Amino acid sequence: MKAASLSFVLLSCALLAGCSGAASSPGPTDEAAGQGGVGGGAPSASSQSGAGAGDQSGAGTGNQSGAGAGSQASAGAGSEAGTGAGSGAGTGAGGQGGSAAAGGQGGAGGGPPVIAGGPDGFATVEGYGIRTTTGGAGGPVVTVSTTEEFLDYIARPGPYVIQVSGSITLPTGTTDGMHAVTSDKTILGLGADATLTGGGLKIGLPVDNAITSPPPDAVHNIIIRNIKITGATDDLINIQMFSHHVWIDHCDLSNGGDGALDIKRGSDLITVSWNHFYDHTKTCLLGHDELGAAQDIGRLRVTYHHNFFDRSDQRNPRVRFAEPVHVYNNYYNDNSYGIAATWNAGVVAEGNYFFSVNNPGRVIFEDNEPGRMIARDNTLVDCNHEIEVSGPVIEPSTYYDYTLDSSADVPAIVMAGAGVGKIDL
Questions:
Q1: CA distance 394 to 149
Q2: What confidence tens digit (pLDDT) does each residue in 183-230 have?
Q3: What is residue 263's three-state secondary structure?
Q4: DSSP H helical segments within 125-264, as ranges?
Q5: Are the CB atoms for 251 and 420 separated by under 8 Å?
Q6: Helix (H, G, I), strand (E, B) or coil at 318
Q7: Residue 225 among the catalytic residues
Q8: pLDDT tens sequence across 404-417
Q9: 300 and 268 Cβ atoms separated by less than 8 Å
Q10: Which residue in 225, 299, 315, 320 is the catalytic one?
């Protein structure tokens, strides 16, 4: 295990090499507010690679390259994508299929669809007694097309692979439209039109500020893939109260009443990959407010990669306390700000492409305590400001291996691969 010592040193802000091209007009005024946290122990990359035994080892490693290759398939790297995705998914799908067949709920084939790739980043890091994120693998596979069926299965105990067919409306009722997902679930949209509308998904126990360490019943092991979530009255997805091992991948997230994807209150070991965020203002909050240190410090370790932040105005993400947060190979298009690191959060931002972003990266943000950010190999075009940097920050490679795409190639790769309908089912 590699030791990762947390440095509390705040260096004065320096500016990374800047924007090129004509400056665009400033975006809307940045808005304060947010919610967040930071991660616990620091398992090594070796624990991640050994973490899969069967369906996840191949998936975690395969998806590292397979995720990038998957989107590049549209751009011409089809054979590479097929190889990487097939080996990672084949093992995992086989295990799920057997269980589903035994339960008689696998649908037409008696088992789940073969899903390309598997989680990577922090969702694959061992911790809290779990080796990696597997979702509902090994549980029954069900297909739902009604509100009643969907709400029934996401609330059941035990593992389930829940396939969503068509559009499902989530009621507001007495929950502000937020519906709790229990541990060990995979929610998978079928095709390119699977949609949840009118409400959002809550991953986590009820908020309790008195709880400052992970409870034994913390929600964990959740996968949400290939589904549109839109029109929620509150958040589209909210992860809270020490939830861990969550993978949000290849989703379309838009037009929510508050956050698109908020992660807060001690949640940890999460990967947000290949999603399309659009028609939304407060996109990704990481750390709920400046009073969250007791729950958040040492947690909130999150990987954001190959996401399309498409005119999603702000919080892409907006970070408090967390370290390290890994933001790589994302495509930013016409945002008021990209990344904000505050309250001693530590962010590594690398290989991203920023187009027409007023403030691509900030460590000095309104009246917040400053954060830290290391920036490498980013491309800035028609931006009004440069990325603010301050360090040091713990390197994500302390925890897992990853491969960067060239930032110049990121727009084509991300637009070809992010969002729904881009993975093999």
A1: 44
A2: 999 999 999 999 999 999 999 999 999 999 999 999 999 999 999 999
A3: strand
A4: 147-155
A5: yes
A6: strand
A7: no
A8: 999 999 999 999 99
A9: yes
A10: 315
